[in-house]
Amino acid sequence: MGFEALYQPIRLGPVEVKNRFSMAPTSAVQAETGLPTEQNYAYIAARAKGGAGIVHTGSVQGTPKAWIGQSEIQHPLYDPTHVGAYAELTDTAHAFGAKAFIQLSLGLGNRGYKADGSPGWAPSAIAKAELPGGMPDHEGFRTYFLRLPHSKAMVDGHAVVPPRAYTTEEIEEEIETYVASAKLAATAGFDGIEIHACHGYLLDQFRSPLTNIRTDKYGGSVENRNRIIVEISQKTVEAIETDFPEVAVGVRLSAEEHVEGGYQFVETRDLAVELAAVGVHYFDITSSSRASFKDFVPDIDGTNMKYAKGIKEATGLPVMCNNLHEPANYLKAIEEGYCDIVNMCRPLIADPDIPNKVRANKIDQIVRCTRCYACTLRLTVFIPVRCPLNPNVGRERYMPEYLRPPVWQTKEEMLPAQIRWDRGEGGTDAS
Ligand SMILES: Cc1cc2nc3c(=O)[nH]c(=O)nc-3n(C[C@H](O)[C@H](O)[C@H](O)COP(=O)(O)O)c2cc1C
Ligand code: SF4
């Protein structure tokens, strides 16, 4: 099988990506809370060295309120003092030849409780529900959840302390803070900023009639429920285009909610068309919310291809698609126009070297994720991600091959990417 199609460069707005492989946003969970650590850098380095053209961060919380809601497993970026830690991360990705994309989030909404049970903010004061029918069809998953003190409340729709509903003014403030954080991300050297609007977290909760019963301009009609996503995208695009024209802006959307009474694909397609009109450069298509876990982290290959194709055709913009584990499906997805970039989370947990192995036609040497859910379960209960197929996951920091090598750079090369862009030297490729 010839895989050349996967090695054609592609542009996402101003950013040229060397191939069609991306590491999808992955909260790999470190033992430490707070800013990214050496382990985060090494995790990113392994996937960049393995050949992915883009490496995403996991979900990064872009405002203090968003961060309060989930400080256990995710990182914050909203203060200038945070920028240095992310600049190390982007330098690392670039040193290993990949573009660095940040997934910037406005928080987990009604899922944004801390392990001590204290709630965060959400569109409406509706407690989250983890529906039994939505749990993966996997022996042990539910039992495991029920044993753990801080996850018990996530099953069977048990009531937890309901979140606080944002006031209209608080939403407007959150959008402004988020946009300022996007500029901090660009300052840190990210090549792309991906707006996290999926998986039943805050922005996605605004979309859903099940979690948004507001009566102001951010609730009610579909247009009102989508308003926050359109506004945040438009303002981020405007701010980034003005100050950091070398940086791409994209949106990660769930195609369908997969819960009775939730939103459908047709609404996602219409939203994507609106977002294309405000100038976003690409889409990252996934599906579902945490309430339907089996569609969020699916166990059948290629389930989101049809959605990705629908968004690509409706908007004419480049689209990333996840849940592609079969090499024949990567190729089909790209060659038959389902998507432009294969966005891999679990496949690269199990084997960070997939892109290089495919390029060398060593398909039989790929370590294939078995969709056993070990990584996912660990994430859900805030313990570092591991994989039975890859003993190195979570300990990349101890592996010399993933330490960023010393690279001689001239003063010119060290200047922030934006200055080089302004001089007409193009892109942000520091590799
Ligand atoms: C351990 C783990 C961490 C994840 N972290 C994130 C995240 O931070 N942000 C996000 O949008 N999706 C996250 N996801 C979802 C993945 O990006 C991806 O959409 C999903 O796993 C399906 O794609 P895959 O089959 O390539 O794994 C995570 C999934 C796993 C298993
Ligand atoms: S832990 Fe299981 S589901 Fe996760 S990457 Fe490894 S094999 Fe796949």
List the defining traits of the structure above.
TIM Barrel; binds flavin mononucleotide; disordered C terminus; two-stranded antiparallel ribbon; binds iron/sulfur cluster; alpha/beta; 35% helix; eight-stranded parallel beta barrel; 431 residues
Q: How far apart lie the N and C ends? A: 29 Å
Domains counted in the coordinates: how many?
A: 1
Query: Which homologous superfamily in CATH is the superfamily?
Result: Aldolase class I
Strand content: 5-15%
Cα shape: globular
- Helix content bin: 25-40%
Name the strands of the widest sheet in spatial order: 3-4-6-9-10-11-12-13
| Helix/strand class | alpha/beta
Which value, in Å, is the CA radius of gyration?
Answer: 20 Å
Overall CATH class? Alpha Beta
The CATH architecture classification is: Alpha-Beta Barrel
Q: Biggest β-sheet: count, sense, barrel?
A: 8 strands, parallel, barrel
